[in-house]
Design goal:
The complex is a heterodimer of chains A (114) and B (112). Helix content of chain A is 0%, strand content 53%. Chain A is an all-beta fold and 114 residues long. In chain A, the strands form 2 sheets. In chain A, strands 2, 4, 5, 6, 9, 10 and 11 form a 7-stranded mixed β-sheet that branches. In chain A, strands 1-3-8-7 form a 4-stranded antiparallel β-sheet, with no helix packed on it. In chain A, strand 5 and strand 6 (53-57) form a beta hairpin. The N and C termini of chain A lie far apart (37 Å). Chain B is mainly β and 112 residues long. In chain B, a hairpin with a 5-residue loop joins strand 4 and strand 5. Classes of the chains: A mainly beta (114), B mainly beta (112).
Chain lengths: 114, 112
């Protein structure tokens, strides 16, 4: 069974630009969550999607948004990029019910804003 | 925000020794998961322990959970150089089971 796939693996963007990251979950998983990892703040929750609906959102500005498609693939978008948005962005895939299932992560997208 | 703290922040041991990492958290949880991360790459899922479980094993890994003390420990037995990585605990809370709150991580170095 294929794991969680994130594309692209690396991105370099300029301040003020926008960026879209993609995540394909494990087949059969309906929940996709996004996390930001930085040296200063560690791993922080961005949002979670289930069946194309955002179920939960972390404490990030509105420049961070996401969506999920009917095949459970998800994208996150960051508009008006700032230097502080440089980070490793990770998505996690899980079955998504209210049960106690594991969350599996992709390799991440390393975003550098210059 | 970080729910928990891992202890120690860094640990250096010789190959063959056991490594123990601890995680504390603040709120009630429904499960706790441990992950490994190599050099800024993705997180590898190691083990999940539910709030009604006290101990769980997987290969060379042993995880304990003490909900009364809001703490968990990860023991890696007979460590190998390949175990060198950062280890994180992540908690899922009731009502927001899909939102994981991560600790700050323990950097484990296993010397050959």
């Amino acid at each position: 069974k294929a794991g969680v796939t994130q594309t692209p693996r690396y991105l370099i963007k300029t301040r003020g630009q926008q960026v879209t990251l993609s995540c394909s979950p494990i087949s059969g998983h309906r929940s996709v969550s996004w996390y930001q990892q930085t040296p200063g703040q560690g791993l922080q929750f961005l949002f979670e999607y289930f069946s194309e609906t955002q179920r939960n959102k972390g404490n990030f500005p509105g420049r961070f948004s996401g969506r999920q498609f009917s095949n459970s693939r998800s994208e996150m978008n960051v508009s008006t990029l700032e230097l502080g948005d440089s980070a490793l962005y990770l998505c996690a895939s899980s079955l998504g019910g209210q049960g106690l299932d594991e969350a599996f992560f992709g390799q991440g997208t390393r975003l550098t804003v210059v | 925000s970080q729910q928990g703290e891992e202890d120690p922040q860094a640990l250096s041991i010789q190959e063959g020794e056991n490594a123990t990492m601890n995680c504390s958290y603040k709120t009630s949880i429904n499960n706790l998961q441990w992950y490994r991360q190599n050099s800024g790459r993705g997180l590898v899922h190691l083990i999940l322990i539910r709030s009604n479980e006290r101990e769980k094993h997987s290969g060379r890994l042993r995880v304990t959970l003490d909900t009364s003390k809001k703490s968990s420990s990860l023991l890696i037995t007979a460590s190998r150089a390949a175990d060198t990585a950062s280890y994180f605990c992540a908690t899922g809370s009731f009502g927001s089971a899909r939102q994981l709150t991560f600790g700050s991580g323990t950097q484990l170095t296993v010397l050959p």
